[in-house]
Amino acid sequence: MARVVMADDGIAFDGAMAETAPLGGAETAFVALAEALAVRGHQVEARNRCSTAVVYKGVRWAPLSRDLPRACDLYIGNRSHRVIGLVRRAGCRLFWLHNPAAYLKKPRNLWRLARYRPTLVVTGAYHAATIPRWLPCGRREIIPYGVLDRFRSASPREPPAPRAIFTSNPLRGLDWLLDLWVNRIKPAVAAASGVRRFAPVGREALATALLEARVMLYRGDPGETFCLALAEAQAMGVPAVVEPLGSTTERVIDGVTGRVAEDDDAFVAAAVALLSDDGLWRRWHLAALEQQRGLSWDAVGARFEALMLEKPDQRRFPGFSGNNRVINRF
Fold this sequence. Notes:
The chain is of the alpha/beta class. Helices cover 32% and strands 17% of the residues. The strands form two sheets. The chain has a nine-stranded mixed β-sheet with strand order 3-4-2-1-5-6-7-8-13. A four-stranded parallel β-sheet has the order 9-10-11-12, with helices on both faces.
């Protein structure tokens, strides 16, 4: 059993909140990894802006203001430069990135990277390409997010009503999508209805909504480095129509589980086809269930665990080219 410490200084959340409260992809991933490592037999402490200490699913949650351990076997600083060195002595020190990495060029990040030399962990090839090659750090690793088991157990189903769904951040292209829906997609699909807006929901309610959706429509965004929303939809067998922005091409298999449309006209055509053609929908639905379940969080936990278990002389510190370990395909 190893001692694992994970730290985040973003919003307040903990494992219990993750059961019902709507959380972003980075927060969902943080909770899921902590719990996966605990299930794998490690002593896991999660420190963030939660208000009180709590033990949930084997993870000890506590505020960052509490005394931090001075040493651990695996330390995972999450997204912010302020947490890179909170635990002074770590057998393996990781810095887990969730956003495009150009921000690491700022001086406040550089000196911490140079001092602690953490291994940078990113979520895919697109994400990796945003890291400046010259950063003073340890090596870089690509480990995709996992997909919660709740989204990986859907069964084949009959074509649903022509209902499209958008489950990402509204600031990531929702206005653009609504314009296409109202003016071009809906008029071409006789049975399609209008637009309904729902408040953010927890994962269980989200899974239920995806079961009733026929297609996930999402343009993509350069700031989206993994897009857990697409991964969850595809894992549940929901075909998706996207454009090649950000990480969308890593989440959707073009012509197999959805369409990566080159422009707005192609996006509209693919959306109309999926909403109207039961045969097309069924082929892409079944392919998504077969090929897009994603990694379990236990499998992701094993990859983080492997970094910790390497002997020091096995650890390499190259630039981001020849000796990176790439684990980015489901």
